[in-house]
Structures are given as C-alpha cells and as structure tokens.
Amino acid sequence: MKTFKCPCNKGEVREVARPGRRTHFRNIPDLEIPADVSIPTCSACGEEWIDEEVAARLDDAMEEVYRAVVAAKVEGAIRDLKPFIAQRDLEQLLDLSGGYISKVKSGKETSASLVSVLMLLAEAPRQRIDALRNLWMAEPKEEAERASLPDESQWTVSAGMEMVVHSTRAAERTPSLPRKGRQGGAVIRIAQQYGAEPSVAA
Ligand SMILES: [Zn+2]
Q1: Residue 104, pLDDT score
Q2: Which of 134, 149, 164 is the last residue of a domain?
Q3: Ligand 1 mean position to 39 CA, how many Å?
Q4: Is 72 within a domain?
Q5: How much distance in Å is there from the Cα of 53 to the middle of ligand 1?
Q6: Among the listed residues 87, 111, 108, the one whose alpha carbon sits nearest the alpha carbon of residue 99
Q7: Are 9 and 41 part of one and the same domain?
Q8: Per residue in 112-153, pLDDT tens?
Q9: How many domains would you assign to the chain?
Q10: Residue 18 CA to ligand 1 centre (angstroms)
Q11: DSSP for residue 48
Q12: Sign of the CA dihedral running 195, 199, 201, 202
C-alpha cells in the first residue's frame, strides 16, 4: 500500500509486521497477532489503520490462531480432568455424544462454551465435577447435606486405580443401571483392601 501522513501530523502510516501485538478476537481478549501479518501503522502515534482488505486478512490469520489456542486449552483441561473423570463419563455429564470431546481436542470442532465448562471444571476437578453432578439432579442437595455423604472416591483415587474409580462412580451415579451391575467385583475388593465397608456383600 501507499504510505500516507497520519492525522496526528507526526508520523507516516505504513505496513508494519512485528511481534507483540494483541487483539480481542471472538471471546479471547488478548490473542497475539502473528508477527508476519502486516497492518498499516503510524510511525509516531502507533494508530493502526485497518480497512476492509486488512480486516479480512487479519480475520483469516486470527481464526487460525484462535483455533490453536482453543485446542491447547481443551488439551490442558482434559489432561487435568483425566485423573478424576473418564472422558465418556464427562461426555455423559455434559450430555455430549460419545467422542465429541476428542473432536474438540483435535480441533475438528470448536465450541467456546464447552471449553469454558471444561476449564472451570479443571480448576478444581473433584469439587466441581461433584457440584455439577449435584446441580444436574432434579432435586439438588444442599452443600451441608452433600458434605455429610461419604466420599467413596477418596480411597480409590489414592489407590491410583483410575479405571476402577470411574466405573465405581459411573455405577454409583447411574440409577438406571441394574442392581447387579452396581456390584463390580473389583470395586468390592478395593473397598475391602482399604478398610471401607463394601456396600453389597461379595
Ligand atoms: Zn499518527
């Protein structure tokens, strides 16, 4: 583009490509503009002069940056949630179709609202997953009432047996599961090993 004098009367406006510029894009307030994207900028006051052509170029570049940042945030959240909840249980809790979270993680799908939920859950996984499960009950329990409930996950989590923890929780929390299905042998064995009373006789 041709350079022109900036209305500030102190500088020239010309194409500038440099690192360190940030912009609000969709729901991210401080997304970094790729260093190789040039924007007409005043040499004195720094004002950026964005016409339609520049805006379109900027949008294309930012869309790519946005997807990469969202994918990274999903990956981080899923990694933090993994020791506390299986992906399929998480999908059930959020009423997502099976495999949907993997699609978001791979970048095939981008859902800012889902990522918001995952990030909030990942900040304090145990408390927030539990709180969300409760909030989704038709008749949620008061916090005091919930605190008095035994935390059946404590000993299984400390045993480092993620799969068993998840199936225990899934079974415990799925009322439609037949009673027989709720007394998994592995669950009962671990309960005995850690001194907890098995809820169903083995
Ligand atoms: Zn200027």
Answers
A1: 87
A2: 149
A3: 14
A4: yes
A5: 20
A6: 87
A7: yes
A8: 999 999 999 999 999 999 999 999 999 998 887 877 766 655
A9: 3
A10: 17
A11: B
A12: negative
